[in-house]
Amino acid sequence: MSSIESRASDRVFIDNAALMLRAVDIRKTFTLHAQGGVQIDALAGVSLDVEQGECVVLVGPSGAGKSTLLRCLYGNYLASSGSIAIRSDGHDAQHVAITGAEPHDVLRLRRNVVGYVSQFLRVIPRVTTLTLVAEPLVSRGVAEDEARERAAALLARLNVPERLWSLAPATFSGGEQQRVNIARGLIAGHPLLLLDEPTASLDAENRDVVADLVIEARERGAAIVGIFHDEDTRTKVATRRFELQPPLRHQAALH
Amino acid sequence: MTTRITPLMSARAITKQYGGRNGCRNVSFDLYPGEVLCIVGESGSGKTTLLNTLALRTEADSGALHYHATHGEMLDLLAMSEPRRRLLMRTEWGFVQQNPRDGLRSGVSAGANIGEPLMAVGARHYGQIRATATQWMERVELDATRIDEFPAAFSGGMQQRLQIARNLVTGPRLVFMDEPTAGLDVSVQARLLDLLRTLTSTLHLSVLIVTHDIGVARLLAHRLMVMQGGEVVESGLTDQVLDDPQHPYTQTLVSSVLPV
User: Fold this and answer.
1) pLDDT in tens, A211-237
2) Domain count, chain A
3) How many CB pairs under 8 A join A and B?
4) Are B184 and B156 in contact, with CB atoms under 8 Å apart?
């Protein structure tokens, strides 16, 4: 992004104080080099603004690019074209453009601004559940004791049995790992949350707890973009729905 | 819009070749304070040559290499005199070898292996050196009552932890690591990785680590450089490079990992 463009989008974030995220014309094409350079279009020009206090639920059939969009917003996938700007915590500028940002800027943004909950927990050998959940707070400078207390409270609320807190979650059931993952994703109160099917392997009771947590985050002003597989949760948490359609897929390589 | 932090180390077009081939070509990057940068690639990709060149263990053919020293001075490493290089290595750097036997002294005790680097930077009080060595043994989860045993009496994983203690005891700012987990049992690897992860973040270390193990890279590194045929073919945020690899070689590398 040129400095002129950068200043222009800074203006947008100044003019609209509630704007957290602006994605403009995001395209994503995967090129599979090992398979003859086949190109798969996953997103064909998606634009989305998200404001504080909004929960935008992504809807669309399987293959519409819902997860791909979330991953682009998190900087986990590189958008092939388009721009993604996120309101920054820094004092030097209003926003950071995830597209084209330096890795350390993306990491700082993830520490302080953008939280992401995936479907699966990435287990770290030997690290206990309580430490894992407290980590995002500790990395933001919260004292270890306080971070662990808050982690314990959140795990209890998500019905993760206390006897599991001192264990590494590698051997937990899918639903237990999922709840540990949610606790880790929500504990730091990030102002922008990206949720990729956080309720996928949960029973009805725990799904309701997660829905309540999402609503609370929204009500304290977080901007949320999420994918939820059940209509019940969608209805509870959404302030707006955003429809995605699968682009024309599997175009043959141009050579 | 981006934060302007001074890089700890800046490499520009670093080249080191053996008879016009192999080695590494034209490598440029900035390493920031507290950042763990992983160099991945298969055997023969030039990653160890690059590491040795950056650590001033082999002379670069061409390029520029700068280091931001503690006192604020920007050092031109390639133009620096040998004694000053030695001083820098002793006081601000560590180097963890793949094989702990290369990084430890076999003829002296575990405690002496940890204490020696301290003496090299001026420590003279025997009691204090021994106390520090004891603390470090505990910190790397070694039985401190074995402080007087020789390295050969320890298992491979323990020796590697001992080597890490020897390298970190002087409080370096930058640590080079060459395949620190290779050659260890998987169960021992996990313990070492967790230890490295904790130490690098609590000590705010900058680390340049060479590995061919994608799992190690994912767990430890903030950022990756992927090497093939002596050149960096792709670099970026660790999870981005591994989850959305752009270069054909990186795609092959990532898709070759067996799912667990």
Assistant:
1) 999 999 999 999 999 999 899 999 999
2) 1
3) 68
4) yes
